[in-house]
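Handout, section B. The chain below has 331 residues.
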Amino acid sequence: MITVCVDAMGGDEKPEIVLEGIAAALKRDQDLTVLVAGSKEYVVPFCETHERARALITTQEIGMDEHPAEAVRAKKDSSIVRGCAAVKSGDADGFFSAGSTGAILTAATLGIGRIRGIKRPAVGAILPGKDGHQTVLLDMGANADIRPEMIVQFARMGAAYAHITLGTTNACVGLLSNGEEDTKGSELVLAYHAALREGLAQDNSCSFVGNCEGTDILNGSLDVIVCDGFTGNVALKSLEGTAKYLMHAIKQATKQSFMAKLGALLLVSALRRVAGTLSGDENGGAILLGLKAPVLIGHGATSSEAVMNGTLATARCIRADLCNKIAEDVA
């Protein structure tokens, strides 16, 4: 039986929402134990009524608006810091939180540690595509500036994650640029391109197919798309902003006539499913690749279903031995 530590205090919602998600995950996975990190008033009553839940009592929380590094240093008894420490000590096999991405990245890097040989951990997520084909995008914000050799590690880590979660065998890897031609891109992107072309030439787990554009992110033609964290974060936020605008525009259009409102009511469930795939909640959120144990990050405005999916996704990565597979690829 494996153990996932879940941060009950992370995210914008009340801890009760997180606890509902944990309960749903325990019901779905009978071989799962959850270490629930958080305030005594929430985690103790919950764990007393759920057989495979254990309490990790903490006295501090890290807010979304706090400086990540400073908060991790100052709040040693926060649910994020203690949760990562529990993984390092062996009390848990992986960690899930919907809290501050920066704080989780800092606490996990310091508390759990990187896989030997990995220069920097990267944030990756599974995005939807045409005909059901999904794509792993990384880095989505952990590293604004990276060296060319790091982009090769990102590609290998993304391929390992795609293999476990999407079932790919030889992942097609694209480099996000401003054009498909090999000559397109900044000097740094051109250096990334050359490093990927050389570094993945003899790789059996993935194949570099060249540059791709922003329109390819949701096109379903690639298994993995790599970029630096600055580019990836801008691309992701652009997608999220576009989705929010479309939902707003549809709501405004429904006010024009009764027939439009009726049509929107018929489509509302389908639109919510689309929004769920773009947010990443259906796949458990984003993952920190390159650490010694699986660490997944949920959306701040989370739901009980998203917490359930994040907990179960963390368990899948543990069972699939994702981190050791990444370590073998890097070695």
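Note. Residues 1-118+290-331 form a domain with the Isopropylmalate Dehydrogenase fold (CATH 3.40.718.10). Compare this with the example in section A.
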